[in-house]
């Protein structure tokens, strides 16, 4: 399962980097659009890529969330945060996701 998620993440990251090369960034608006369209494979893969990038840079957040949380839960958390904070939607999802996740998954 991890290999499948990794493979999808790599494909999605290629898509993201290709878009960045075209001077675009995957914003909160883009994320919400894909989330509302129920494009689960894309959204969950994108979240897996963000999550993997957080491991070395934010291990405390990873520890607080734990290992039982699914990518779909994290995606829903980010989507709810974006719906409740429309002023943040023009920022990149990669920068918004850690904020959104940390507001809902606090260490005990």
Q: Overview of this structure, please?
A:
The chain is mainly α and 108 residues long. The protein contains 6 helices and no strands. The termini are far apart. The relative contact order is 0.17. Keywords: Signal.
List keywords for this structure.
mainly alpha, 0% strand, single chain, 6 helices, 108 residues
Topology, element by element:
Blueprint: H1 2-21, H2 28-36, H3 40-57, H4 59-65, H5 71-84, H6 93-104
Residue stretches low in confidence (pLDDT < 50, at least 5 long) are none
Number of helices: 6
- Major sheet characteristics: none
Number of domains: 1
- Based on Cα principal axes, name the global outline: globular
Percentage of residues in helical conformation = over 70%
Brief summary:
With 108 residues, the protein is mostly helical.
């Amino acid at each position: 399962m991890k290999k499948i998620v990794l493979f999808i993440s790599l494909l999605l990251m290629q898509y993201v980097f290709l878009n960045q090369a075209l001077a675009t960034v995957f914003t909160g608006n883009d994320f919400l659009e894909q989330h509302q369209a129920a494009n689960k494979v894309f959204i969950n893969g994108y979240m897996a890529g963000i999550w993997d990038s957080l491991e070395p840079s934010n291990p405390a957040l990873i520890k607080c969330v734990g290992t039982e949380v699914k990518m779909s839960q994290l995606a829903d958390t980010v989507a709810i945060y974006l719906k409740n904070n429309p002023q943040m939607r023009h920022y990149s999802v990669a920068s918004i996701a850690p904020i959104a996740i940390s507001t809902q998954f606090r260490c005990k």
